[in-house]
Amino acid sequence: GAGVSQSPSNKVTEKGKDVELRCDPISGHTALYWYRQSLGQGLEFLIYFQGNSAPDKSGLPSDRFSAERTGGSVSTLTIQRTQQEDSAVYLCASSRRGGQGNTGELFFGEGSRLTVL
Amino acid sequence: AQSVAQPEDQVNVAEGNPLTVKCTYSVSGNPYLFWYVQYPNRGLQFLLKYITGDNLVKGSYGFEAEFNKSQTSFHLKKPSALVSDSALYFCAVRGSSGGYNKLIFGAGTRLAVHP
To answer: Please, are residues B58 and B50 in contact by the beta-carbon 8 Å criterion?
Structure first.
């Protein structure tokens, strides 16, 4: 597709279960980001991948959160032992390039809405 | 550390009137500044950016923004608001030096344009 694709669009899970959220960036984009947005609020940075460099994980809120990016393309965000406070919309974005001096804008997916009961 | 402040949670304006959504920032080095818009239940859409050059940048849907280095501001403006402009607007900044590669967003400002 032409845009950033995220799945599932909606996920309802029970407290304590693990969830995986997937992101397919725009083809050729080397930078990929995950953000979290709670109840129409601001965007909280989670993690940033740039090419083969070590990811910037400084935004991950706890060790229950992890993410990987396989082959420099698709990314999966995993939340283990979900808690109710994890309920939010998880947004993925990609850009043409990253690194120092990156001036490119981010292209966002529609998001994955996670509800933890 | 880099940061973005959007001091207004909500801005109300009548259709046809000019609108301003405020943004101030703090970053090391020269800033790269962005505005995004989010319509209900949608992802974010890019509006415009300032990288270098002319302080007044023009973007999508008739929006523009003015970079003011001395005031560290990047306010979003539109001469004549439309009801369809009602949405959530985010300012974002990325530093140009050091390892500040990630884009940091403000808390967002909800724009309500009334007929």
So the answer is: no
Residue A115: other Cβ atoms inside 10 A = 13
Dihedral (CA of A23, A59, A105, B92) sign: positive
Amino acid letter for position B100: Y
| CB spacing of A56 vs B106 below 8 angstroms | no
| Inter-residue contact B68 to B4 (CB < 8 Å) | no
What is the DSSP annotation of A20-86?
A: EEEEEPPTT--EEEEEEE-TT-PEEEEEEEETTSPPB-TT--STTEEEEEGGGS-EEEEE-S--GGG
Name residues whose C-beta falls within 8 Å of residue B54's C-beta, 6 or more positions apart in sequence.
none
Which amino acid is located at B5 in the chain? Answer: A
* pLDDT above 80 (res A111): yes
N- to C-terminal Cα separation, chain B: 41
> Which neighbouring-strand residues pair with A49?
A32
Q: Is residue A73 within 8 Å of residue A4, measured between CB atoms?
A: no
Q: Per-residue pLDDT tens for B15-64?
A: 999 999 999 999 888 889 999 999 987 788 999 999 888 999 999 999 99
Three-state DSSP at B60 gives: helix
Cα–Cα distance, B61 to B75 (Å, whole number):
16
* Site from A34, A36, A38, A43 to mutate, B interface, most B CB atoms within 10 angstroms: A43
Residues on chain B touching A96 (C-beta within 8 angstroms): none
CB contact under 8 A, B101 and A109: no
3-state class of A20 per DSSP?
strand
